[in-house]
Design brief:
Blueprint: H1 12-44, H2 49-97, H3 101-107, H4 109-134, H5 136-151, H6 158-200, H7 202-207, H8 211-263, H9 269-311, E1 331-338, E2 348-355, E3 360-365, H10 371-376, E4 386-391, E5 394-395, H11 401-405, E6 408-411, E7 420-421, H12 422-426, H13 435-444, H14 448-453, E8 461-462, H15 471-485, E9 489-493, H16 501-514, E10 519-523, H17 527-530, E11 535-540, E12 543-548, H18 550-556, H19 558-573
Parallel strand pairs: 3-10, 3-11, 6-9, 9-10
Antiparallel strand pairs: 1-2, 1-4, 4-5, 7-8, 11-12
Helix pairs in contact: 1-2, 1-5, 1-9, 2-4, 4-6, 4-9, 5-9, 6-8, 6-9, 8-9, 13-15, 18-19
Length: 574
Amino acid sequence: MLNMLKHLKSYSFQIVLIVIFTLAGSMLELFLPTLMADVVDVGIVNNDIPYILRTGGLMIGTAILAVLLTVIVSYFASKVALGFGRDVRRKLFINVENFSLQSFDKVGPSSLITRTTNDIKQVQDVLNMMLRMMTRAPLMLVGGIILAVSRDATLSLIFLAALPLLALTIILITRKAIPLFVSMQKKTDRLNLLIRENLIGVRVVRAFNRVGFEKKRFNTANEDFRDTGIKVNKIMASLFPVMMIMMNFTNVAIIWFGAIRIDQGLMQVGNLMAFLQYAMMILFSLIMLSMGFIMIPRAQASAKRINEVLMLQPDIVDPEKSEQTKEHGVVEFRDVTFRYAGAERPAIEQISFQAKPGQTTAIIGSTGAGKSTLVKLIPRFYDIESGSILVNGVDIRKLTQKQLREVIGYVPQKASLFSGTIADNLRYGKKDATEEEIMKALETAQALEFVNEKEDGIETVIEQAGANLSGGQKQRLSIARALVRKPEIYIFDDSFSALDYKTDAKLRQALKSETQQATIILVAQRVNTVVDADQIIVLNEGKIAGIGTHQQLLQENNIYQEIVSSQQAEGESA
């Protein structure tokens, strides 16, 4: 939790004002019982009406000023807490955006969502409470004790019995609450994970008639979260009645022994009334502190989870000084080996090839051969284990990520579109793309026809994740987004899988004329897609099993022959 306080540096002035106004407000509140005692012991006893009116007026003015100071403190506390939440949320998001895919996979999207929303809200709420209550409560506690002792030191001995009991109650309840609050945050992660999975995979759930199963799975997690919440709230709920009982017994003791001291002439009635007020202030301050101690553990658990993400350094960092590229559009792999974190064997091993401008390099192989992994290494989504990848004659680790990715147009295996218009999505590739450039890219990607059929054309709004488009339409828009960029290197990661054979052929033909000077690296499952490539790389279990043209591989490579024959057999059976 203390690590989070460094994010409050920019709010130092407001925090100083909060402390000053809280101190002033507390002093005014502590002054009120003294004035009340004077009204009773001086004004009423002596039947001095003018004194009663003067002191009463002073009490009203003091109370109004104390209320105004409390309102000002609440305003600044809320402003600081909300600003803090905004700043930490921004830092968290920026840090996550800089993660490599490996770091992103390590934490998981559902947990990152919880940490960016729920966890920051927990810390923000506790900070707001601390600025308002946790600065006020200690002042009221210490001030109340000092003024109570100054009124009657003997009667103050009651606190020696009451305060340790209250402190012990707070400690016991806090010790029980801390692990439950930590557990609740983990259960929140679990709920978010299940909701996210079901919303994204709703079609699969319904297609396999697993709605009932998913309901049970969610209900189990939901009830687990509920039970933990009830348990922790029962513990918190027990605090207030226990403390109220102690407060009432303390008040009874003060009145009992105070009456005896008044009867003995050792204490005045006004002093007893003021003492009771100070006792209430002391005990309420302890309740405020206890509520803080109850809420702090949950915020501490949340702060720890936030810090885990903030402290997680990106695996992939830019070099201090980047090199200038020597060529244009050349991609070269030199003995590249890569394995995923925790994997026993490499995903790809000893990969060497070169892709040149004006050529199409196709990568084909069975499922799990490492095709997508290989192309993800070019934009440096992951760092390799050994060997080197050169783009335009320079090792990609000696280029900044921005420098590297500016020359690449990447079309992922799973088409990913954002909420907004079609034009907005295409301008992801080039932010200042003109309407003419957008229309040309759509035409090349064989997407112009279905876009023109829509009432608003390129201004048609795309729903979240492209829910109002078919798989093939999303793929074609993803391809158009890369084409708008006009990069030196195009990477198509199995980007034609949702297209029919006719559209696939027309798209590849259109690409030839539009990308004549660029390097094309194409991952595909279908032989028809790679048949015209200048070189085809056959992958098998992460290793290169052959490189050549379609005709060369058809004559010399057994694995490629098996792929071709299997697809021909599928075509015949179809």
